[in-house]
Amino acid sequence: MKVVVIIPTYNERENIIILLDRLETVFRGFKRHTVSYLVVDDTSPDGTQELVKEYQKTHKSVYLITGKKEGLGKALLRCMTYAVTRLNADILLQMDADLSHDPAAAPEFLRAIDNGADFVIGSRYIPGGSIFTDRLFGHSKIAPAEYIFNIYSYIAVAKFREIVTGSFGKFLVVGGIGFILNAVILILLHNVNWSATWANLVGAAIAIFSNFNLNNIWTFRHQKISGIGQYLTKLAQFYATSAFGVVVIQTGTIWAGIRLVGDRQYFLFFLVGTALLLVWNYVIYSKVIWKK
Ligand SMILES: Nc1nc2c(ncn2[C@@H]2O[C@H](COP(=O)(O)OP(=O)(O)O)[C@@H](O)[C@H]2O)c(=O)[nH]1
Ligand SMILES: [Mg+2]
């Protein structure tokens, strides 16, 4: 298979040739794969690129792509795309140019791939792991503050996306549909002279039925309830826990709030009660009704 070692560089003139030489030594006589090297240099002002171009004259398996500096992540994406689409790489092996990734360890990564791994990651934190050598020449391009900020903002965005697109977001959408159904039925029946109480009971009963089925086929589809016996048992459970939530948790919060603080704040207690109801419902659905 074709291995492309990808090496991002920015101001690595003291290191890049040493690294390429060491890699070539390590892979000399390596028969299982053909190995080439792709340097991605973002027009380093120290002339890294010129050194690599000179080196290419005598080393045919070294490739170079260049661009303007947009950060390490962008450089790596560009480089991976090039390696796959232009050099037909089957396996990508990424190494920093500052000699902090030991070339002698590279064949071990390929061995793991040969043994069936799809992705191999080296870590200084596993048993036997360490920084083999730390950067001897030049300096780190990645400022600690920026690094920490980027990691935390990535985690925050990923977590938010997971909540919105994950089961909690779907649960909210399903609940919203139920709320609309409930309101529409209440208004329609009230218009044909039903009492608001009965009209709401029918609306709520239909909304709960809709919530149950939509949650079953969408929100919690990986734990889908099937089989008529189980379906009916879970549906009854769903009605019971939904009724408990509305009567005890939501209405109870309003009742307690009014008694403690007074009637004028009733809408605030409605909002608090509804928030508690959402938590109750979500916990019951995920931990009881659609328990993994
Ligand atoms: N092409 C390119 N390479 C970069 C850029 N930033 C860092 N690098 C390279 O990425 C590797 C890791 O960067 P380094 O400064 O050693 O980061 P550290 O190991 O986290 O301190 C080195 O080979 C750098 O030359 C960039 O913006 N573009
Ligand atoms: Mg480094």
Features:
binds magnesium ion; 2 domains; 292 residues; 4 strands; Spore Coat Polysaccharide Biosynthesis Protein SpsA, Chain A
List the helices and strands and how they pair.
Layout: E1 2-9, H1 16-27, E2 34-41, H2 48-56, E3 62-66, H3 72-85, E4 91-94, H4 106-114, H5 144-165, H6 167-191, H7 196-219, H8 228-260, H9 266-289
Parallel strand pairs: 1-2, 1-4, 2-3
Helix pairs in contact: 5-6, 6-7, 7-8, 8-9
Summed over residues and divided by their number, the pLDDT gives a mean of 92
CATH structural architecture of the largest domain: Alpha-Beta Complex
Tally of individual helices: 9
Count all strands and give the number.
4
Percentage of residues assigned to helices: 55-70%
How is the CATH topology of the largest domain named? Spore Coat Polysaccharide Biosynthesis Protein SpsA, Chain A
Termini separation comes to 41 Å
User: Spans of 5+ residues with little confidence (pLDDT < 50)?
Assistant: none
What can you see in these coordinates?
There is one protein chain. The chain is an alpha/beta fold. The protein folds into two domains: 2-142, Spore Coat Polysaccharide Biosynthesis Protein SpsA, Chain A (Alpha-Beta Complex), CATH 3.90.550.10; 162-289. Helices cover 59% and strands 9% of the residues. Strands 3-2-1-4 form a four-stranded parallel beta sheet, with helices on both faces. Helix 5 packs parallel to helix 6, helix 7 crosses helix 8 (228-260) and helix 8 runs antiparallel to helix 9. The protein is elongated, with a radius of gyration of 31 Å. The protein starts with a strand and ends with a helix. The model has no long low-confidence stretch (mean pLDDT 92).
